[in-house]
Amino acid sequence: MGVLDEIQEEIRRVADQVSNAVVGIGQRWGLGSGVIIGKDQVLTNAHNVRGDEVSVTFHDGRTATGQVRGQDVDGDLAVIGVDTQESPAIEWATDGSPAVASPVFALSNPGGRGLRVTLGFVTGLERSFRGPRGRRITGSIEHDAPLLPGSSGGPIVNAEGRLLGLNTNRLGEGFYLAIPADEALKNRVDALARGESKGWVRLGIGVAPPHIARRMRRAVGLADAEGLLIRHVEDNSPASRAGLAEGDLIVQAAGRPIQGIDDLFEALATADDGIQLVIWRGTDERAVDVQLGT
To answer: Distance between CA atoms of 170 and 177, rounded to whole angstroms?
Structure first.
């Protein structure tokens, strides 16, 4: 048997072992994938679901409506409760994170349109990216197994067919990032399966980063200042109730200088019921107390 025959046989073997645990997510508004992690439990990305119900397509073509049990939007994870019938759950890897150059198999079923299985290699570890609402997700596995759009939420597995990570973010140029299937992910998934959705403290604003803020202030003749420029304020949000407005520049939060979005997230993470922001409105500096909510 030649090398190509051996590779083909290995891909076929892994596909036969894992494919029944891989599902399609969604049908009309978008395509995604997921993986069965337990009886009547499917793990996918939070960005693959809308509302409380989601369509799930199984390996045999059966489609069922599932209910979102819990989700962590900023961590881009969601657990769906759905009748898995006799479909098996995937096994988790127990030998730790893969090393760079380790082979990985990526599986997906974009929107239930058919199983895809590809082979690649780990190209990097401890990579980071930003989740759906801008928070940084760290510790990801970078690999080069080719994946179609709609593959997010599908698994990467090792040669034994055990879960190594959940494909989540496409980097472009053929690379993908997967959230590692470690003990921390297990604990988070267990909590979501119990209905413990994770809520983050939020202001209800959209912001421009410091380099854009400086450029926009210069354009209207204002002096440079380091901070985040508010571009949008949600109605009836903590920010709107505190009187924050489009064009305000956030320069401090809880006494900390704000030089980037991560500084603001860190300040919010340690806040309780409220936080004090220092803003520039035009040329005037003022302190604003914001009552927070999740």
So the answer is: 6
